[in-house]
Amino acid sequence: MKALPLRAACAWVLAAVLLLAGCSGPEPSPFKGTDITGADFGRALALRDHHGQPRTLADFRGRLVVLFFGYVHCPDVCPTTLSDMAQAYKILGPEAAAQVQVLFVTVDPERDTAEVLGQYVPYFHPDFIGLYGAPEEVARAAREFRVVYRRHTEPGAAGYLVDHTAGSYVLDRQGRLRLFLPYAHPPQDIAHDLSLLLQAG
User: Fold this and answer.
1) Could you report the per-residue pLDDT of 110-123, keeping only the tens digit for each?
2) Domain boundaries in the chain?
3) Most exposed: 20, 27, 173, 177, by fewest CB within 10 Å?
4) Are 121 and 82 in contact (CB under 8 A)?
5) How far is CA 156 from CA 51, 150, 159, 160, 188, in A?
6) For residue 120, what are the CA distances in angstroms to 9, 48, 106, 108?
7) Buried b vs exposed e over 33-56: b needs ≥16 C-beta within 10 Å?
8) Which of 16-20, 87-91, 110-114, 162-166 bottoms out in mean pLDDT, i.e. has the lowest?
9) What distance in Å separates the CA atoms of residue 97 and residue 90, rounded to the nearest whole number?
10) What is the CATH class of 44-200?
11) Given 3-state DSSP classes, what are the helix, strand and coil percentages for the chain, each rounded to the nearest 5?
């Protein structure tokens, strides 16, 4: 069998090495939540905070943003999520937590007024901010973040409930979507992921 020229042999070996390297699969994500870096949605938000002040995502540049859509009368998902976020703040410590902003966007604007949000959201942590708007403004924000919600009533229940996407988005200091945290994500894992993003700058 005729030997390959040295240059051809080296090229073949290099190709084999690269092929084998590709078989090892992608590097595992360092995050506990779902890495959605590069997502082409969740770029804009224009609502009012529970003090009545207009707010956009640009107001929070330089800080991480944890964004959650819910409502005050929510019986389980919303209070659990806000409690978990407050616990994550404690794990982070005051200095790191000061670089994170939790935003709670209501999907029930008819009942969740500025006053109602102002009593509810800061109850979990004084730095948390509630956001509201006219129904069409809330719907626009939900579409931007691919959040779905639907009002419904249950037999014998007073008032109505709102089914909604359960989970939180995390945006980095530049306002880019980075993570999706599913409902009941452990506070330790939330703090872990936020710490990684803070270290990344």
Assistant:
1) 999 999 999 999 99
2) 44-200
3) 27
4) yes
5) 35, 19, 9, 10, 39
6) 70, 16, 11, 13
7) beebeebeebeebebbbbeeeebe
8) 16-20
9) 8
10) alpha beta
11) 40, 25, 40
